[in-house]
User: What shape does this take?
Amino acid sequence: MKNRLLNVVIAVAAITLCISSCKPKDLGSAVSGDAASKAYVAPGHYDEFYNFVSGGFSGQMSVYGLPSGRLLRVIPVFSVDPEKGWGYSEETKPMLNTSHGFVPWDDLHHVELSQTNGEVDGRWVFGNANNTPRVARIDLTTFRTAEIIELPNSAGNHSSPFITENTEYVVAGTRFSVPPDNDNGDVPINTYKENFKGHISFIAVDKETGHMSIAFQLRCPGVNFDLSHAGKGPSHGWFFFSCYNTEQANTLLEVNASQKDKDFIMAVNWKKAEEYVKAGKGKKVPVQYSHSLWDEKTHSGKSEMIKEVLVLDTKELTDICYMIPCPKSPHGCDVDPTGEYIVGSGKLAALIPVFSFTKLQEAIAKKDFDGVYEGINVVKYESALYGEVQKPGLGPLHTEFDANGNAYTSFFVSSEVVKWNIKDLKVLDRVPTYYSVGHLMVPGGDSRKPFGKYLVAYNKITKDRYLPTGPELSQSAQLFDISGDKMQLILDYPTIGEPHYAQAAPADLITKNQLKIFKMADNGHPYFTNGEKEAKVVREGNKVHVYMTTIRSHFSPDNIEGIKMGDDVYFHVTNLEQDWDVPHGFAIKGAVNAELLIMPGETMTLRWTPDKVGIFPFYCTDFCSALHQEMQGYLRVSPANSNVPLTSSLGGQASGSAEVN
Amino acid sequence: MKQLFILFCFISLIMACGGKATDTKSGTNPYASTEPAATTNPTYDPNRGIGKWTPENLALTANLDAAMADSGLKVREVKCASCHKISGEKLVGPGWKGVTQRRKPEWIMNFITNPDPMISKDPAVQAQLELCLVRMPNQNLSDVEARQILEFMRKNDGVQ
Assistant: This one.
């Protein structure tokens, strides 16, 4: 009897489960029946979109395929990567140079794809370093970091690397206001209000080469600049920055920066700023910041220190910036595809204000101001407001758009994504996320031409979504199909680091430009070995340069003798392959740095200092052929006073050796 | 009883929620091989191989172009010498001595500019692969470089 009762209870529970399974809103683990086929990409087939995702505190940028959620690559950017030799090879070390010296780690917060006419063009993707303020440009023909520029007068580069609609500028706004670099920074912290400033950098991007240079900085009040987005279409020429801590607190910000009912979105008329620059109103300020550039011909990075930056003071030039009041510590600051609507997301608010660019312009023209904040005119809230989305959820963070006039806003506190109509401000749909979503991403969702179709929620909390892996869990992303009226969850997948913002572009935009090999004929590396015939060892005092080649499956030379204690050995390894996807690796016992991974036609250098007398094997780390296991060599280290001559060979044939000096 | 109920539930779940299958969301794969994987192909010409070169467009002269052969030697040193000796001795791949007598010139040109499809199809190359066990890499030779190498091979085989 008892057993039968139990059976009935179980059966009822099972039926309930079955019924509720069809309502994914009510049950986190359930998705509707065709989800798998929507996210399925058959073996050997390509994804529809490349998805560039910030690696957060990993400092790197990851690349996923959508809709499969497959990880395609992790691009090393601001953190060293021993796997790829990034930051360890002699060529890549300058890329991580800063005014503080070599910095091996950073926190890559946001990513932005380059645009032409407000549309994603697939040329470059930018990323920002939050800790030691920098912006990086990644070349999408090689998927490598091509350039990194440091930002003076800045700290916590957070509202970055957002771009104008023709990639004229990448911006970088400082989250942690600080005393300007050239001022005496040795001041009491509680003099924040007098001494701390927020600088916003406008980094010009060369149309052809992509090369970055700081065109000018705006000196702004000391607040926390959080996120930003450029105007587009009619609002092209303006940039919008969310700011919080307009209370200018310097301690316990959790409480002290949450005092005011409204903080601001700062509207910046950057075309006006350009006029002032032309008119010579900028001040050249002595500073120090690094600029690192990768040269694909020499396969090497170079870093230079720049000593000056042009600064415009917004307290004196009062028609560049205007403050728009925005409720409760705004985070997201997003401009819709038409360029008319600016959506502020107050992370402690329970409504979403939508501002109108047209109304903002009218208010500025009529001087419809509500006082002045630190020298900057404050536009009346109502005068700039188009309307508010009422009761959308709790804690709006960030908004992306589709091509049909809809907006999608993430809600951290109520852990959901809400779809609403921009024109009538009505909520259309809501879906839960697992858990506590931060940023969202719709392919092209911050451009003039969103590609739509998918939405990815990057969640801050993972908890029970995957098999547990101890106290530390990977982050959780969730893919939604947004092609219908209702958002449909179709895939959950883990991500590296902590993704903040992301971008996506149709695969075709990027695949067509892919570089498969570096042409040997173009190799301009100073230690390039043009074929095995040129392989050699050269001693310059206690420096020994090994001109080494790799091809399936041997090194040349693979026997080296005459290295002595006290020597510094530089292995300059040229990969002679000229075929796609045939890298060779190089590693030597006892190396205190990393390996090299050398792409076809490329030359890379590993510095190695012997720490004892003896025989040191080296080998290829990247499986290259059926005889990969045979791809190895030996290096003999003798005492400092030894007279073993410097020689190198392959298969008993001596390669060149020379003594210079 | 319990099992029956659960089974019933799963069936209704599948019926209730199973939407119609949609196409996979795959994009086009521009790098996918267009060559069929089959190794036997009745149209395969083992004297010519696969590629753009024919006796007609190659138009070899009986005499050696010495300057072209010298250029071929330079290309060889960068892109070929790691694996091939000019004698008949095998290094990673077979030595070059006599190759122009063993193979038609258009076969050589096709093989060195288009190795992968021929490694998959050519019976002689497959027999060679069993000996060497390393697939000859595509060294991305230009047409001019390939022609120069052929001229060097001819010189190496005694063409005057």
